[in-house]
Amino acid sequence: MDRRKFFRLLGAGSVLALFKARAQTAPWDEETFAPMKTLGAPLSEYGQRSPFEEGVVRYISPNLRTRHSGADFAPLEKLEGVITPNGLHFERHHGGVPQVDPAKYRLVIHGMVERPLVFTLEDLKRFPSVTRTYFIECAGNGQNGYRNPPDPNLTATRSRGLASNASWTGVPLALLLKEAGVKPEAKWLIPEGMDAAAYTRSLPLEKAMEDVLVAYAQNGEALRPEQGYPVRLVVPGWEGSIQVKWLRRILVTDLPAMAKDETSEYTDVMADGKVWAFTWIMDPESIITYPSGLQQIKPGFHEIRGLAWSGYGRITKVEISFDEGKTWRQATLEPPVERYAFVRFKMPWYWDGKEVVLWSRAWDEKGNTQPTREEFFKKWGKNNRYHYNAIQAWRILSDGRVVNGDRPLGQQAFGPVGGCGGEVFDG
Ligand SMILES: Nc1nc2c(c(=O)[nH]1)N[C@H]1C(S)=C(S)[C@@H](COP(=O)(O)O)O[C@H]1N2
Ligand SMILES: [Mo]
């Protein structure tokens, strides 16, 4: 946007008022110089964040029955840019986090191959490597949206925090498969984890050959144990549940396994009771992180900020509505806009102190966008608990409090929300 348009949008007077107000009110006293007067902390071998930032943590629901088979949420509204710091990447485990000794680590590729192979971690690191930024999103992300009536205390974290975005380094799975020599009749891979859940999924060979990574690094350092140390699958754009962590073997075969982790969970129950299996690709999503649920704002200038992503490809635009979908304005996308990765969107905004509802919707390069809540339920029904991607509304009350702006659809409550992303865990 050019400068003139920017000022027209804000009203130049209000910008001046903003800066004037700031100069007058920020305190400036002896305390400001305190750090200059004493010797600082010594060098340290592994850096830690400021103790003042220790409140920025993953959200673990108090309703979970166990912390070993459950999920926690990345604190989206407390993060900037697009990279999720390693200590704040959301977690989803079915049998706790195993401790794996990298010296004893082995990856087996067997089944319909010319040469069954066993790799050490060192072997994997000798292959040509690839580093790419990809989001990982649990199929259960957005699950709180299925609640009716909607939770008034929803935050951006609890709305969409079962998604995170990192720079992953690893070997293309296609290279390892080439090494093993896949037989022509093979169509599926059955990757398995070494956690107590013996977590197992079925992955089409076609996707594996396209862009799947056998990843050993996350944002420049070894994977965190929670993310699958020492090795996990990264399956760009697809639901988190197929991205097997603590990967120990890949069986090459001609049929899907129909494992417990893709039948009892991660299937979608439609309005007519029919069940869909293998809904891998994540639909477009966006979430305004500022201003968002349970924050408090003052009248004046604000930069609306948020995150958008899609499993179908690059984000092409994000739109914001201030009148519940009657009109839309296009937000600025912060470059680089990468495929299958979080994108940061922004819009300058002057809040006049009147109650207003903010909506955001993302568009991807395949022309997909997000439905309203009503449209979503019309299409998918209310029996499901996965792949909720309806527009998240935030209502700014006239006192500046921000609350969930989703209006109730009716009076019926449709059951406790369980499973993957559930804050009431049922499995
Ligand atoms: N071995 C193993 N892999 C797993 C899981 C698991 O429980 N065990 N959970 C899956 C699910 S449902 C999701 S959403 C992602 C979560 O990845 P993260 O914990 O790194 O965010 O891991 C997937 N891979
Ligand atoms: Mo998941």
From TrEMBL:
Which InterPro entries does this UniProt record tie to the protein? Ig_E-set, MoCF_OxRdtse_dimer, Mopterin_OxRdtase_euk, OxRdtase_Mopterin-bd_dom, OxRdtase_Mopterin-bd_sf, Sulfite_DH_SoxC
- What enzyme category does the UniProt record give? oxidoreductase
Which is one GO molecular function term here? Answer: sulfite dehydrogenase activity
Keyword terms of this UniProt record: Metal-binding, Molybdenum, Oxidoreductase
**EC code:** 1.8.2.1
Q: Which residues form the Moybdenum cofactor oxidoreductase dimerisation domain?
A: 280-392
Occurrences of domain Oxidoreductase molybdopterin-binding (ranges): 94-256
Query: SUPFAM superfamilies under this entry?
Result: E set domains, Oxidoreductase molybdopterin-binding domain
Task: Report whether Oxidoreductase shows up as a keyword of the record.
Answer: yes
**Membrane among the record's keywords?**
no
The prosthetic group or cofactor this protein requires is: Mo-molybdopterin
Q: Could you list the residue ranges that cross the membrane? A: none
Parts forming coiled coils:
none
- The name on file for this protein is Sulfite dehydrogenase
Protein encoded by which gene: soxC
